[in-house]
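Subject: Protein record for review, amino acid sequence with backbone structure tokens
Category: Structural biology, sequence-to-fold work with a learned token vocabulary.
Format: Residues in single-letter code; tokens as whole numbers, each standing for a residue.
Body of memo: The sequence and its backbone structure tokens, given next.
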Amino acid sequence: MIFERYILRNYIGPFVFSMAVITFVFIMDFILRYIDLFLGKGVKFHIVLQAFVLSLGHMFALIIPMAVLPATLMTYGNLTSENEITAMRACGYSTYRMIVPGLFAGALLAMGLVAYNNHVLPESNHRLMNLLIDIQRKQPTVELNPNRFIDDVQGYTIYFQEKNDRTGEIEDVQIFKRSENGGLPTTIVAESGRLQMLEGQNVLRVDLNNGEIHELPVAEDRGTYRRTTFKEYTLNIKDVDRSLQRSERDYRGDREMSVRMMGDKIQEIRADMALSRQEIIRQADATMDNTFSLLRAQERARRWDAKPDTVSTRGASGAHPKPRVAVRSTAGTRAPLAARSEFLARSRIETEVGKRESFEKQIRRYQVEIQKKYSIPFACIIFVLVGAPLAIRMGRSGMNMAIGLSILFFLVYYVCLIGGEKLADRGFVNPWLAMWGPNLILGGLSIVFLRKAAREQALADWTWLSVLTSVFRRHATANPR
């Protein structure tokens, strides 16, 4: 156990360092993604901080698996460069046993991430989505700056040349009150005034001095014009509150649900699909019944029309012709009705088929998300299996190559994961295979690396790379710029 504890202790520092670096990258992405939204809406700092804390939820679901690979490379690379791996082999420890502590740490992280993805992540995503929706609905903050037309106030456009930020006094004021029916606006001009925000009443109060009001009393009558002069005039503009109004929505997306919630949702959708299938069968049966009924009516009409116009009745006095009563066939009138009924039934069937396709797409999306909650945590184990043999065989001298390969493996993993998710959502690939395919690919490659590391063989033949490098170097020397 001393050997295992020693390797685990060496894991802590590189893992924390890797998490810090990757977290910093994610934070930069968060800032660049939402800075325009926060600044444009005038969101207060504590709301921005709350959004950042909630966004850490989905960040950590990716940061932890990403940190395992560089941590594994640094841990076993340091052990190799200090010849501690050689000493362990001299003591009888095999390469497989050296990797066991890393696998143990990766397994613990994987189990913790599974619980985290199933309980913590859905709630943090749900709260973050609610907060972002509230921020997007928030009206922009009214900035009352001089020498610009301010139209952020509902129903008004305000302009003034000078403003005293301490007292709120303004000069050379022009206010345009927009007409609700699209007519000419009412214009208010004044020499001076004062702005005052009545916070509790959600009102912007504008006290004006020495001005005029120009308006059309009757909007339809452009020939009537009214000008009113005043020494003092107070204008109260309502509904200027720009504070964030919080709300709570009940709807949850697939990334805002736990595995149990998505399982229940899949059962509900399948029940709706069963009802849709019954409706398709019912409409098809009704259409077939109407069609056969029409065919039978047409056949009866054809047989009736084929009989002669008179029939003979033979009695005691001889044969006397008896006219046949003419009967109107209803087949001709029923044909348009049957065609219309068939058209309506076909439309209903097409609607139900479209609903079934939508239901199947929803089920695939939920199944993909369920598998993702397990496949991404399992990547912690896969990255240990990939990184440990790379570091052991290459050591610190080959760490640049190892880190380059690990980045390549990491990119391949997440490209396959994202591509598999898209293909599974569209029904081209099974959701299980789409989410677990990257783990299977890298897992198979890690087995090859482990076998070669255990036999102390080179993981790959890199002579072709050296030859290619020398060719390029020779070409650059022969053809200087």
Notes: The two ends are 61 Å apart (CA to CA). The beta strands are 156-163, 169-177, 186-198, 203-215, 226-238, 310-315, 318-323.
